[in-house]
Amino acid sequence: MEEKAYTVGQLAKLAGVTVRALHHYEAEGLLHPTRTANGYRRYGADDVARLQQILLLRSCGLALGDIRAALADPTFDFHDALTGHLVTLRAQQKELETLVGTVEKTIASLEGRCTMTDAERFEGMKARVIAENEAAFGAEARAAYGNAAVDAANERMASLTEEEWNDAEALGAAILEQLKAARSTGDAEGAEACELCAMHARWLQMHWGAGAYSPEAHAALAEGYVADPRFTAYYDNAAGEGATAFLRDALVAWCAERE
Questions:
Q1: Contact residues for 87 (Cβ-Cβ < 8 A; gap 6+)
Q2: Closest to 221 (Cα-Cα) out of 211, 231, 206
Q3: Residue 55 in contact with residue 17, Cβ under 8 Å?
Q4: Neighbours of 64 (CB within 10 A)
Q5: 100: Cα within 13 Å, side-chain hemisphere
Q6: Nearest 5°: phi and psi at 35?
Q7: Whether the predicted model's global pTM rises above the 0.85 cut
Q8: Average pLDDT over residues 247-257
Q9: pLDDT at residue 117 above 80?
Q10: Rounded distance between C-alpha atoms, residue 184 and residue 192, angstroms
Q11: Mean pLDDT score of the chain, rounded to an integer?
């Protein structure tokens, strides 16, 4: 039986992507369609399977360059990658289900069909934040620290009282102000920087929960701040260009003294 072959338009429709995307994947060295005598692209079963891998790895948050390297690596385990991603998706699903319930209850409250308590509003707000964090950082965090650590952090956040939540938010804002003050001294190991690091450690412990914090994990997280442009933008926008690198230097030095 002859293998089914797809044109670029047919495969794009089948996969729910654009023709332009397929051309881009080919240009990036990810897809290698055959060509007919008149130069038209044809995609066989192997190409379809390869495209599914590409799209699933994209959904895991991998950049195209990382996907190309992974698929070219004979030691890469696609099963393990998907298993880890499934854990992240299920965590997101759990938080989204809670959020959906809150939205439904809010709509019912607005329509006068029920009364929503402040406690219920707060629980919904926490579920939204946790779901957003999972969507934005879940895959990387689970790869770096493991599913148990991330699940524990999510459970810790979900268990915070409103007072504890507000205290954590206030401490987070104070850390940004302390970062500005410490950076102005130019000394990543001075008194202002040490106070900054102590504040940051307290903030992490409020989010990670008892027993989850260690200076080693704190220092590793600090390195991640510089490596991840999202965190770099957050701290640099709040305290000036170079603030993230200063924070990393301060935390690495501070944590080294406590390991």
A1: 142, 147
A2: 231
A3: yes
A4: 16
A5: 6
A6: -125, 140
A7: no
A8: 96
A9: no
A10: 9
A11: 88
| Euclidean distance between CA atoms 156 and 206, whole angstroms | 8
- At 201, which helix (H) or strand (E)? helix 191-208
Q: Which of 231, 257, 259, 258 is nearest to 244 (CA)?
A: 231
Closest CA to 154 of 142, 143, 169, 167: 142
2 has a pLDDT exceeding 60: no
The residue type of 154 is N
Looking at residues 30-43, what average pLDDT do you find?
Answer: 92
What count of residues does the chain have?
259
How many CB atoms lie under 10 A from the CB of residue 144?
Answer: 14
31 phi, psi to nearest 5 deg = -120, 145
CA nearest 89: which of 139, 149, 21, 18? 139
CA dist 190 and 63 (Å) reads 38
Taking alpha carbons only, the member of 19, 40, 21, 39 closest to residue 30 is 21
**Averaged pLDDT for residues 230-251:** 95
Over residues 19-36, mean pLDDT: 93
Instruction: Produce one character per residue of 233-254: b if its CB has 16 or more CB atoms within 10 Å, e if not.
Output: eebbeebeeebbbbbbbbbbbb
